Amino acid sequence: MKFATKAIHAGVEPDPTTGAIMTPIYQTSTYVQESPGKHKGYEYSRTHNPTRTALQNALAALENGKHGICYASGLAATDAVLKLYRPGDEIIATNDIYGGTYRIMKRIYEPFCLTFKFVDMSNMANIEAAVSEKTKMIWIETPTNPLLKIVDIKAITSICRKRGIHSVVDNTFASPYLQNPLDMEADIVMHSVTKYLGGHSDTVMGALVTNDDALAKELAFIQNASGAVPGPQDCFLVLRGLKTLHIRMQRHCENAMEVAKWLEAHPKVSKVYYPGLPAHPGHELASRQMRGYGGMLSFELKGDVYDEAVKTMENLKVFSLGESLGGVESLCTHPASMTHASIPKEERLKTGLKDTLIRLSVGIEDVEDLIADLEQAIG
Ligand code: P1T
Predict the structure, then answer these.
(1) Residue 351: how many CA atoms within 13 Å on its side-chain side?
(2) How many domains, in total, are found in the chain?
(3) Do 151 and 234 lie in a common domain?
(4) Of 215, 242, 269, which residue sits at a domain end?
(5) Mean pLDDT of 113-127
(6) 244 contacts: CB under 8 Å, gap ≥ 6
(7) Whether residue 210 is found in the same domain as residue 357
(8) Does residue 231 sit in the same domain as residue 367?
(9) Which of 139, 144, 194, 332 is the pocket-test mutation for ligand 1 (most atoms within 8 Å of CB)?
(10) Candidates 15, 31, 42, 46; catalytic one
């Protein structure tokens, strides 16, 4: 099946009791058993819930994977992955990375004696230099948040396969519409479902997809044993959101490209970070690895004056100032004080994340209105 058909149909069967075409919200904690252990496959909703099962199957299909496992947030999904490792194990991660991912690694798991090395993965030599006997996993985020760097998934997964190291790709910025890391031999793909998959800024959720039966078993064990599961209402909302993922992503990509080109040509803008622009250092790789360039971009104003960046963000009217991304409406974020505030300033500056960086999640409104809004805000 091709992508749009899968987005609409995968994982979803008419409800066996009524024929309802939409998967019902099974708002129940438990299931009646005929006799101890004799049941219809469902015992308790932390372990299994039919609305969640439908969503997990849909997400697995969209990522060309066998197993989908949903969690209460993107970070709960990341938490489940990190629980696969033991004291002394080493993990290499992208240095330009969502602030919360950095925080869970450094502040939660480093005290439990996992070791993390954050490297610039746009240069493969940095990864070769970082890998050691103790390396158990490489965590890839691409495009990166918030500098939109592109990491060569295939190059890294082949290093991982040779050495028996797990590879995990945070595919939140691309969505499965633009990129399928499992097809590039990644072991696990991770999503903040909160973003493009949900698509309507009304749900917080995470997911993992894998083709590896043993990993899936462990991750499902952690899902149940640690208990960070999403509720059935949220699963329903995401199932509904998925049905338009392909058309939303098309428009996100078109609008972001227009906005990026307009910003690039603006006399007050010094730098635009968007992989769709030929001047972007990862443009060629993105053209090979992705089926489009996505809806996220960042930019800086000439002179790098903090107050001017803040004024621009305050002036925006169609773009709302706030954290998150991937909803139908356009959002503007100040990474230094919002999404990446948990990364120490010295570390942020080392990766190139300045206090004057403005990040946009370009929505699916009329692009003329988005550009007019930026025009009046930049002045
Ligand atoms: O917010 P949550 O669903 O827990 O997902 C965390 C997460 C993981 N990975 C990436 C690439 C992310 O962007 C996020 C969440 N990011 C934001 C809230 C943000 O505005 O960047």
Answers:
(1) 30
(2) 2
(3) yes
(4) 242
(5) 95
(6) 7, 199
(7) no
(8) no
(9) 194
(10) 46
Joined together, the tokens standing for residue 10 give 């995968």
Atom of ligand 1 nearest to the CA of 325: 20
* Residue 371: closest CA among 362, 311, 295: 362
Q: Among 202, 220, 242, where does a domain finish?
A: 242
Residue listed under structure tokens 């945070």: 170
- Tokens at 226, concatenated: 């640690």
Residue 2 among the catalytic residues: no
Give the tokens for residue 97: 């990375």
Q: Ligand 1 pocket test: pick from 104, 145, 358 the residue with the most ligand atoms within 8 Å of its Cβ.
A: 145
Asked whether residue 34 falls in the same domain as residue 91, the answer is yes
Q: Where residue 374 sits, what CATH number does that domain have?
A: 3.90.1150.10
* Per-residue pLDDT reduced to its tens digit, 353-366: 999 999 999 999 99
- Predicted confidence at residue 122, as pLDDT, reads 87
Identify whether 46 is a catalytic site residue. yes
pLDDT tens, 306-326?
999 999 999 999 999 999 999
* 115 & 226 share domain: yes
Q: Which domain holds residue 77?
A: 3-242
Out of 6, 52, 195, 248, pick the active-site residue.
195
